[in-house]
Amino acid sequence: MKKYRGIIAALIVLLQPLHLAGQKQYTSYKELSAEINQLGKLYPGLCAVKSLARTGSGKDVWLISIGSEPRDSKPGVAIVGGVDGSYLLGRELAVGFAERILKNATEKNVKELLDKLTFYVLPDVSPDESDQYFSKPQYERSLNSRSVDDDRDFKADEDPCEDLNNDGFISLIRIKDPAGKYIESEEDNRIMVEADISKGQTGEYLVYTEGIDNDKDGSFNEDGPGGVSFNRNFTFNYEEFGKGSGLYPVSEPESGAVADFLFDRFNVYAVFTFGPQDNLGQPVKASERQTTGPGPSQPQGQQQGPPQGPPQGQMIRERSIITAILKSDEPVNKLVSDKYHEITRLKGSPVSVTSPGNFADWAYFHYGRYSFTTPGWWYPVEKGKNAEAAFLKYAEKNEMKDAFIPWTEISHPDFPEKKTEVGGLKPFVIHNPPADSLESIISNHYRFITEVASMHPDLEFLDVKVENAGENIFRLTLKVHNKGIFATCAEIGDQFIWTRIMRITLDPSGNQKIESGQKVQRIQRLLGDETAEFTWLISGRGSVQVTAGAANVGIITTRVDLK
């Protein structure tokens, strides 16, 4: 009997990988960490893994640097997942990209890409948030583990959600009450919506997240575990004292480490973010006029006659605050969006979720890079229709079982004499596709990123000419051409101190001397397929070296013989 048990056990071990090989599941923090570190061991020549920071609960924020050496000296692309804990797909897309590009590194086109570019992959920048998917009770969490007094009652984390029906999920409770503002949706009576007075509707239900009023302040679950959202903790459009925004911008180990890392990488020219914001499903448009607001103060000039405006000594000035994509960046966003639809075959787009202090906006407006962002998956919602009702229709059509928890009556201590029910959409289902569709979604996004990366800014010298001007003087003329589709930097970042200035340098040799023209000159921003021309007069025969570029576009060099 022992002999047969051993054979059976061996067969189970052998067959288990075959059983799992075709399956892709959402991965926990522990599983994701193991996958990431395994990549570093399997591809040591092309991949380096390190932890940028640790969260308050001790979870690592992992970085995977991919490309041939020297990685930080080549143009770079940052790929960021996990900016919002509810959007688990982003983590899978980021690490899935890393796995596929390393696996395909011997293919000619991929090898050429890895020789020219470096990919900085941050699969999960908010692991405290996303790992709630793998904990019980399961609920959507967008806050890290920092303890915060959300309701400002001098107590922290004292009013969390509770699993009242013990099903392992935090959903909703609805209480039959004429003082409530909610009614059942006409599109799907399982969904609760606010009553519309303009349509003659009056409320019938109170609706809260599942739980009780622990601190008896009349609010439910308003001060649960954790307190700061990665995707609300950045400097652009930061919301002071906002829910989940933190004590100040970039206050958290996670956001601080990511910002510091990127600011140190002058070679990064584009950032891809997987999260709630979206400019790929629906590209954004430039604005003719930018919003204005108060800027740094300076004294008013002297005036003749009665004072006009602020009293003497008061300082004020108006400046432009850029709040929309700039004109020459708009066509690139449109091009990349078109490529996204073509490759992923996703139709339409969801209504883009905006939030103050979000990472994708920061990457464009304050980091000054091309910033592309998408949830990575969505379901169709007709204009004017309820999104949750549309999801249930989509779920039924695609046989997504158990997406909704049926309303079930319970006894609630805060509503002892009123009919109270627990139910609603399961956590995470509305933002993340079923696990059995992950493989195809990851493959499409891998192809999308690699194709867009191949459009990177790429310099070359053209029309190099040497003319003998007589008396041992030579005129050297050449053009610097951007043969890429992307501009050499985003227009928003052209004047940023975090964007390296492109330079062209002429290095004479021996007794040669530059008679006309500058040894070092700035190359203005070049759009895709744009050219800049330079000319020098040089006395003396021999060869000169010309070097052009910057960290975010790469450096090119040529030697020219003057004879």
What does this molecule look like?
- The chain has helices at residues 2-21, 29-42, 89-103, 108-116, 127-130, 253-264, 330-344, 359-365, 387-397, 438-453; strands at 47-54, 60-66, 76-80, 118-122, 172-176, 182-184, 192-194, 205-209, 268-274, 292-294, 318-320, 370-374, 404-410, 420-425, 459-470, 473-482, 502-507, 513-516, 520-523, 531-539, 542-550, 554-562.
- The protein is of the alpha+beta class.
- The chain has three domains: 27-131 and 233-286 and 317-377 and 433-453, Aminopeptidase, CATH 3.40.630.10; 152-214 and 389-426, no CATH class; 459-562, Immunoglobulins (Immunoglobulin-like, Sandwich), CATH 2.60.40.10.
- The strands form six sheets. Strands 1-2-4-3-9-12 form a six-stranded mixed beta sheet, sandwiched between helices.
- A hairpin with a 3-residue loop joins strand 21 and strand 22.
- Helix 2 (29-42) packs parallel to helix 3, helix 3 packs across helix 10 and helix 7 runs antiparallel to helix 10.
Percent of residues in beta strands: 15-25%
Spatial extent as radius of gyration:
29 Å
Largest sheet: 6 strands, mixed
Please give the alpha-carbon distance between the first and last residues.
Answer: 91 Å
The strands making up the biggest β-sheet line up spatially as: 1-2-4-3-9-12
Structural class: alpha+beta
Quickly give the CATH architecture of the largest domain. 3-Layer(aba) Sandwich
Task: Summarize the amount of helix as a percent range.
Answer: 10-25%
Mean pLDDT: 87
State the CATH class of the largest domain: Alpha Beta
Spans with pLDDT under 50 lasting ≥5 residues? 1-22, 290-318
Shape type: elongated
Number of H/I helices: 10
What is the number of beta strands?
A: 22
The CATH superfamily of the largest domain bears the name Zn peptidases
CATH topology of the largest domain: Aminopeptidase
Task: Kindly give the count of domains.
Answer: 3
